[in-house]
Amino acid sequence: MPLSIEAIPAFETNYIWALHNGRDCVLVDPGSSAEPLDYLQRNGLTLCALLLTHHHYDHIGGVDDILAKHPVPTWGPVDPRIPQVNRPVSEGDQALVPELGLALDVLETPGHTTTHIVFHDDEILLAGDTLFSIGCGRLFEGTPAQMQASLDKLADLPGKIRLYCAHEYTQDNCRFALQVEPDNPELQARSAKVKKLRATDQITLPPTLAEERAANPFLRTREASVIEAANRRQPGTGHDPAAVFGVIRGWKDQG
Ligand code: ZN
Ligand code: FE
Fold first, then answer.
1. If you measure from the C-alpha of residue 228 to the centroid of ligand 2, how many angstroms do you get, rounded to a whole number?
2. What is the pTM of this model?
3. Of 34, 88, 196, 218, which is the most buried if we count CB atoms within 10 A?
4. Which ligand is nearest to the CA of 130?
5. DSSP of 90-139, one letter per residue?
């Protein structure tokens, strides 16, 4: 059976991603344990690894509970705030899940937190809270320049890769993005599609990276329209991508 990827909703907006082949399963960022444990049991799946992107509670809160029942390899960043990680990985390393035939490349993406990492291959990007659909993570620990560099790494990946991020924030993100780029037809189309999906409580993920590059303002800080919007918001910003990024990130934070 080919790889299936399913979202297990948790808390208000989190998705815990489950990658499985009908027998073995990997969980990504289990912020809680009840929902994923129930999911494994209901589907008759055996847990074979955990993948963790960063230390925030809504991403690792369920790890202890899950490991107590299923002691599996736990891949994650080098960070004393996640002592459960027993397969620490850095930029250039791979997370290996032989049960699913997965070899995922690790990229360091500081910005949301200083040690945030993402996992990807040629088809999927497990982005945690670095890149959201039509948005990006808040800068809790990093600088705009760090986050711009992190997003540049993700924007450089092949466009057919699908984005599996950790939150259902897309509709809110579209509302903001339309303030930055009201005349972007790709964004207008995405926004309409997302509105329809959310009206019936459906998931808006996973978009392709090509779709994101066309509509996500945080991946578009070199586009004239986004540079102009940043300079309207804060005159004198100029066109340096990190400066433009800082202004639109701050704009979004202020609502
Ligand atoms: Zn987070
Ligand atoms: Fe989060």
1. 30
2. 0.98
3. 218
4. 1
5. -TT-EEEEGGGTEEEEEEE-TTSSTT-EEEE-SSEEEEETTEETTEE---
